[in-house]
């Protein structure tokens, strides 16, 4: 399985990642969403170099030019809610892709930091024989990504899977290596961090991507998340 960290080489990815992580700059929610979208566009371009193309003659006003057009049938999948701006960045480049949406959330066990991942909703076309790109900004444990992938397999067997994230952890990369097919999966990250805290959040990470993109959850949702800490 190939693991690609775009921050291994300096590019505009490094600039946008710096802004996403900065706790002052990230308070500008519009800028945060824009930077996530930009990273989706850059990653889409990098992934496009790995896809198949067909030779296509294109008529111009003065003649015929030999061109190459994307030949891979593609499904672009995202995990709600934090994945939407990242997905939008990809879709602005892969504008003819079919789309899939999966809702996944953490359900914490009472009195514990342990949690299970639950899939609540999925809408997807057939992925049989297609290139599947699954995008989610934060790849913390890898559990949500793996369960989303399993849910999508009910719609067919993809030819190749690209797992795309803004930040991954070492733990999540190891998890994906163990639970997704090594010969047909590529993991793409804008950066990879090396630590998860006791609540399974990436450190240093950037915070709660969903809240930074769209605002904080309602009081009752936050209380449910805080309940395991309060009961200690």
Instruction: Compute the average pLDDT.
Output: 89
Q: What is the top-level CATH class?
A: Alpha Beta
Can you summarize the main beta sheet? 8 strands, mixed
Q: How many domains in all?
A: 1
- Give the terminus-to-terminus CA distance: 40 Å
Total helices: the number is 7
Map the helices and strands:
Blueprint: E1 2-5, H1 12-21, H2 29-48, E2 53-60, E3 63-70, E4 74-80, H3 84-93, E5 98-108, E6 115-123, E7 131-135, E8 138-139, H4 143-152, E9 160-169, H5 170-179, E10 185-193, E11 195-196, E12 202-203, H6 209-214, H7 219-230
Parallel strand pairs: 1-10, 4-5, 4-7, 7-9, 8-9, 9-10
Antiparallel strand pairs: 2-3, 5-6, 11-12
Helix pairs in contact: 1-2, 2-3
Describe this entry's structure for a reader:
33% of the residues are buried. Mean pLDDT is 89; it is low at 222-232. It is built from 7 helices and 12 strands. The protein is of the alpha/beta class and 232 residues long.
Describe, in short, the structure shown:
By secondary structure, the protein is of the alpha/beta class. Helices cover 34% and strands 33% of the residues.
Question: Which keywords apply here?
Answer:
232 residues; alpha/beta; Rossmann fold; 8-stranded mixed beta sheet; two-stranded antiparallel ribbon; 12 strands; disordered C terminus
């Amino acid at each position: 399985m190939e693991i690609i960290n775009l921050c291994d080489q300096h590019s505009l990815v490094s600039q946008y990642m710096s802004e996403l992580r900065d706790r002052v700059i990230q308070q500008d929610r519009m800028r945060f969403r824009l930077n996530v979208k930009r990273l989706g566009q850059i990653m889409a371009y990098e992934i496009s170099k790995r896809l198949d193309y067909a030779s296509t003659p294109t008529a111009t006003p003065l003649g015929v030019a030999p061109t190459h057009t994307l030949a891979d049938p593609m499904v672009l999948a995202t995990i709600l809610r934090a994945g939407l701006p990242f997905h939008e960045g990809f879709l602005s480049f892969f504008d003819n892709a079919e789309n899939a949406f999966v809702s996944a959330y953490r359900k914490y066990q009472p009195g514990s930091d342990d949690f299970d991942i639950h899939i609540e909703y999925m809408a997807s076309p057939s992925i049989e024989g297609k290139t599947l790109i699954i995008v989610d900004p934060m790849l913390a444990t890898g559990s949500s990504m793996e369960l989303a992938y399993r849910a999508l397999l009910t719609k067919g067997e993809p030819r190749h899977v690209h797992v795309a994230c803004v930040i991954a952890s070492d733990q999540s990369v190891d998890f994906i290596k163990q639970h997704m097919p090594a010969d047909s999966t590529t993991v793409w990250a804008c950066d990879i961090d090396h630590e998860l805290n006791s609540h399974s959040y990436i450190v240093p990470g950037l915070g709660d991507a969903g809240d930074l993109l769209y605002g904080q959850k309602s009081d009752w949702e936050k209380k449910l998340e805080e309940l395991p800490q309060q009961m200690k």
